[in-house]
Each structure stands twice: as C-alpha cells, then as structure tokens.
C-alpha cells in the first residue's frame, strides 16, 4: 500500500509525534475546564464555561476574506544571493554572495473566493515577503510578466467586472468582455490567461514576475531600474482546460495540496531569481515606456541577469495564523530599493495597507508573521485593537521630541521626474509578438478555443468589439475567433447548452 500523502495524514502524524494529549483543556483565559452534559434540563447552560467560551468564540471566527486573491497556498523558506549586484543596489539582502534572507511566499488565483477552486482560468498572485535586516521587503507579483492596465483608476471597475453580477450573483461573461474591449490594452495579459499559462499545474511549476520596473540605488547613489523574474527550477507546467475542469470537480484544492505535500515530503520547490537591468539612459532612450505595466521589457534588448534563488522548505504550522494573516504591501521597501515610479505602484502603496487595516485591524504589523524578524520596530504608532505587543513600552510617543525617542533615518532621494516616451495605451505590438513568436501553433489553437468558450457567452455587440481588437492584434487571430463565433451561433446555443 502507498504511504498516505502528508496533507491527508497530517492529523495522524500529529498523534504519532505526541506521547498523549498535549495537556488539560482550558478556557481561553487558561482555567482548567470540565466538560459536562449540556442536554440536561437540570443544569444552567450559562455556567458551562466550555459551552460559553467555545460558542461565543466560534461566531467570531470569520474575518473578511481578501477582496482579490482570497484563496491561496503559502509557505516559508529563504532567499540566497548567487550573483553580486552591489554595483547597482545597496539593499542589505543583496550585499554578498551566499547571503540568505528568510522569506514567506503566498500564491493565489485572483478572482475565486476563499472556498473556490485552484484550477480556474485566471492569473495567479506571486507574493513574496523577505524579512531583511532593514525591515520587510515585499514583491507582490503575478505569474504573468505584465498587468491588465496602467491607469490605477480602473482597479475597482476591473475587480467588479470579473466578480459576480449584482442581480444574478453569477460570474458574467458580458461584464468581463465589456471591460476587456473597452480597455483593449488588457488583451495582452489576457492572451496569456486564455493561453496555456492561464491554468498553472500547481504552484511549484509557475513562474513569477514583479512586473513593475523598480528603481534601485547603489552606495554612490546612482540609480538603476530593474524588473524581477522568478523561474521555477522544476520547469513550467500547465493544465489543459478539460483536465483542469475534471480536477476542479475532484479536488478544488489541488494546487494548495500539491505545495503542502511537496514541502512536507522534502521536495522543496525553488525558483531562480533573475533581473533585467536598465540605466537612466536606457530608460530615456527606450522605444517603449519601460514603466508601463501592460508591457514586457524585451529580453533581447534588456537581458536577464542572474541574482539568486529562493527555496520554500517549511509549511505553515497553522494556516490561518501564518498565511491568511500574511499582509503583503508593495510599499514595504528597504534602503536601496525605492519601488516602481509608475501610477499603478503608487495606487498600490495605499490599497494594500488600507485593505489590511480592514481585514486584520490597525496593528496587523504586530502579527508575528508580519513582524520584521531581523530588525527592531521603532514606530510612533500606539494603541488600537490587539495585538499591540509591548506597544513601544515607555518610549516617547510623539515626534519630534527632546527625550531620546526614535530619530529619522537620512531620507533616500528618489529619481527626479524623467522625461520619457509614453505609448498609446492600446498599442498591440507586444500582444502580436506573443501570439506569433511565443505561442506554438497548437497553443494558438487552444487560445482560440479558450477565448471562444468565454466570449461565446457574451452578447453579439461585445463579440464584434472583441473580434475587432483581436484582428488588430493579428488578422489570423481575429478571423479564427470570428469564424468560431459564427459556428457557435449557428450550431450551439450557449444560453441553453451550457
Ligand atoms: C491599481 C492597482 C492595484 C490595486 C489597487 C490592488 C489592490 C489589491 C488589494 C486591495 C489586495 C488585497 C490585499 C489584502 O487584503 O491583503 C490585493 C492583493 C493582491 N494583489 Fe493587487 N492591486 C493592484 C495591482 C496589482 C498588480 C499590478 C499586481 C501584480 C504585480 C497585484 C498583485 C496582487 C497580489 C499577488 C495580491 C495577493 C497578496 C497576498 O497574497 O496576500 N496587484 N491587491
């Protein structure tokens, strides 16, 4: 008989590693507790502390799920420098070859709710938190090298367009295709979502991208601009639509289970970390706006330079405490890494902090998994909902002060505004490249099939609009989708047959 997988066997393994019950049960306040019969009419339930304590706690167990990226798998490990980049970046975590920094990772589909399926056709979040000696550095990325739009005002609209119809409470193809065709720059990323990479085969075989072009600086104060790439050492693997649909019925937690089992059985997933590097002159002379998150930076012009690798070698011991409560924020930056100068990055500096105040409360950075474990916090924040930890003890609580409260660090100078060439939003050159040069003939056919599956459910005026933009990307893509839609119209009724 095969050994049961670690995830299926977790509770049995717990019993095996403990010599007996872990202790006497107590109330949350620590008092030993008796369990008495609650069904008898002859006793007051209100004196039953087990009942009172557990019931009142149970009804407070839920916190808001993340607005997006609600479902996830996550783990812990380390980042290790393999190549020197101190000539461009002075961040301590990159200071010498061989240096290791502890980290956390969380991988997540964007749209599905917390109880949804891991194998939906969607982009995936690729969020990393590095616990550096200068505080936490977060790269909150995707498994696609580009994002949907470059105007952050579209974030609420796009989230809504992908979520549920307000009347039917159903995911609604008309809403999605309305958005995609009103903001056609989004089709670049959606070619990937509808292509083979739209359903990764678990998280271990998924690449990651920081997407934004980050500004970094060296000891001399020179600026450079970099994009992060994370390449899975186990290779990229994806699922086909039919396979994914089947898995989704059998095991909606497929990717979460796979990550847990791999780590628990010592097959630690790892990623090679590479960066594209641009000088200020490269930025000024670039043919494209290198800060545009809907674009990739062509690798023939800006090649990948190796930087390091990261390894995930530790599962959470408690999922809620360590993964649900993880709070990533693109604004978590460290000395030497100034973040992206673009507007999407700027919007994100606000959104995540705000979301986490709502989701986890004002002191979410005091939750152990969010604490910068390699440095001490000296913030002028006090009080609020738990956890407050030591609440900065008796240190002066106002700034400035003359009584030895914490003093500011020398402020890092950001690059002045740079005059650069900015493209029209709907420039389809890169989408065309992706379709023609990066996708194989078979993948192009599967892309068309997957688009038809989704677009076939939308009304005709949206289908016509979509065909127009697919044709602008490439006439072959446009005509195959147009023909496919016509076959569907005559031979197949999506409303009734699906
Ligand atoms: C205007 C642009 C954007 C806004 C306003 C925004 C906002 C948000 C918000 C509010 C959350 C939930 C956070 C939480 O509750 O903890 C979230 C999660 C996330 N976002 Fe964004 N986002 C934007 C763009 C992006 C981009 C460009 C990327 C990828 C490069 C991205 C990747 C992620 C990931 C990976 C998560 C899940 C983090 C986790 O694992 O906890 N987002 N975003």
Automatic annotation (TrEMBL):
Domain of life of the source: Eukaryota
Alphabetic keyword roster: Heme, Hydrogen peroxide, Iron, Metal-binding, Oxidoreductase, Peroxidase, Signal
Source organism of the structure: Manduca sexta
A biological process term (GO) from this entry: hydrogen peroxide catabolic process
Annotated ranges, domain Catalase core: 26-407
Record: residues binding heme: 352
Protein name as catalogued: Catalase core domain-containing protein
Family matches, as SUPFAM superfamilies: Heme-dependent catalase-like (SSF56634)
GO molecular function terms noted in the UniProt entry: catalase activity; heme binding; metal ion binding
Homology family: Belongs to the catalase family.
Cofactor(s) in the UniProt record: heme
Parts forming coiled coils: none
One Gene Ontology cellular component: peroxisome
Alphabetical list of InterPro entries matching this protein: Catalase, Catalase_clade1/3, Catalase_core, Catalase_immune_responsive, Catalase_sf
